[in-house]
Amino acid sequence: MSKLAALDDLLELYYQLNYHQNPDIFQRLQDVQAWQKMRMQSTHLRQFSEKHNILMSEYFLNRLYGGSDFDALAGQIARLMKYAHKAEKLIPENAIKTGTSGVSLAILAVQLDEQVAMQLLKDYHPHEKLTDEMMRLTYLKLDQGQQRLQQLDLLDQLGLSLDKYMRSFIVYTAFKMCKGAASKYNFQVMYEFMQDGFLAMKPLKSAEKFVKDFTAVERQIIHQVHAADPNPFQYQ
C-alpha cells in the first residue's frame, strides 16, 4: 500500500464537508475560525509572545487551525497522489507520516468548526457578530468535548513526531532538494506548508514542549466549557 494512501482518505473526508457547496456555511465557518484565532491569541498570549515561540504560534494559528489557503493545499495534495510513486522516493517515510498528521489535524479542525458554524446558523441570524457567550452555548449544545480532547491528543503526538523526525539534518536536506521540483510542478503551497513547519521549529528547543504547554491550557478551556463555567475562555 502507498505510504501516501492515508492522504487520499483525508482528502475524501475534506471534500465531503458541507461548506464546499453552501456559501452560508462557508461564511459562518470563516467567522468561527476568526473567533477561534482571536480567542487563542488571547488565551495563549504569554506563551505566544515569547520570542522563540512566535513562528510556531503563527504556524498553529494560520496552518493547523483553519488556514485560508487550505483549499489550495488540498488541491495540490490531490495532484500529488497522481505522482505518489515518485514522491515516495523523494520524501523520507517519517516526513510523510508527520506531514500527513499535520494535514489530518488541519482537516479535523475545519470539520469541528464547521459543526459549530452549522449550529450557529440554526440558532442565530447568519450575520450576527459572534460573541463568547454564543460560542460557549454552542459548544455545550454540540457536546464536542471528547472530539476536541482527541484533537489535542493528536496534536501532542504531532509535537513528539516533529522533535523525533523533523529535526534530522538528512530529512531537512532531502526536503530542500525538493524545492526546485515543487516549483517546477506547481506544488509551492504544499512546499510552503512544510517549510513553515521547519522554520517554526528552528527557534524551539523542543516542539513537543511547545505543544504540550498549548494543549494543557486548551484542555483546561474544554473542561471549563463543559463544567458550565460562565467565562470558560478566560485563562490565567
From TrEMBL:
<feature type="domain" description="DUF8198">
    <location>
        <begin position="17"/>
        <end position="232"/>
    </location>
</feature>
<protein>
    <recommendedName>
        <fullName>DUF8198 domain-containing protein</fullName>
    </recommendedName>
</protein>
<dbReference type="Pfam" id="PF26621">
    <property type="entry name" value="DUF8198"/>
</dbReference>
<dbReference type="InterPro" id="IPR058511">
    <property type="entry name" value="DUF8198"/>
</dbReference>
<dbReference type="InterPro" id="IPR058063">
    <property type="entry name" value="FFLEE_fam"/>
</dbReference>
